[in-house]
Amino acid sequence: MNEAVFIGDCDKSDLLFYLGKLAAEAGRKVLIVDYTLHRNYEFSFPALDMPGEPQEYDGFEVWIPADGIQPGRRTDYDLVLYDTDDPRRLPQLPESACRFLVTGCEQTSVRRGIRLLEHFFADRPIAELCAFRKVLIEGASEPGEAYFSEQFEPFPVDWKESFVYYPDERDLALKIGNQYAGRLKLKGLSPEMKKAVQGIASVLLEKEQKEIRKLWKRAERSK
Asked: Can you tell me the distance from the alpha carbon of 25 to that of 79, in angstroms, rounded to the nearest whole number?
């Protein structure tokens, strides 16, 4: 079983949905765990009236744990993706070497990302380096990559590769359309978003980009 944790105050539901669909297309049994403060996934996909239970959505499953329920280790899945923006819930997430910090360039997003990392490292040995990958949602020329590096320098992080995409009306239109259609379409995403999703999928599935592109084409055609 492979697990990945996505940390950040940005809405990551569409990103994780696309990753879940690609992984399912690769034959993996996938679960997305919504551990966000305001349950960002609650109305973003067609779920049955079964609170607290994993729900199937277009080849993978989404789970919004009931209040007070810790996610634990879900060993009945091949790939589990955890999404959180809540500092209090970080200790409840499983240890994983595959961690992503998702942040925009607004001060609010950056500062909340810093707060999340402060809570993440609060009870860890100072000398312990933890691997992270950055997912940057850039909407302006400022503040730039150097600023992000400076802000997160105090943390004992072994930064791996970064993935960048830009806010695009095509991605928002497709995200909203998917919510009302009740199924997940990939065709029509902006090139930047598509590249970021494929890059992250390559890490999660441990596949070359050529294989990921083939999966993408299959997922685009799936009904």
From this structure: 12
**Whether 58 contacts 10, CB under 8 Å:** no
Residue-wise pLDDT tens digits, 118-156: 999 998 877 789 999 999 998 766 677 788 888 999 999
> Which pLDDT score is estimated for 27?
96
Q: Is the confidence at residue 193, as pLDDT, over 90?
A: yes
Compute the distance between CA of residue 9 and CA of residue 146 in angstroms, rounded to an integer.
Answer: 21
CA 216 distance to own-chain centroid: 17
Report the C-alpha gap between 168 and 216 in whole angstroms.
Answer: 20
Instruction: Tell me the whole-structure pTM to 2 decimals.
Output: 0.94
Q: In the chain, helix, strand, coil percent, each to 5?
A: 35, 20, 40
> What values do phi and psi take at 128, rounded to 5?
-85, 115
Sheet of strand 130-137: strand arrangement:
55-57, 60-63, 30-34, 79-84, 2-7, 99-104, 130-137, 157-165
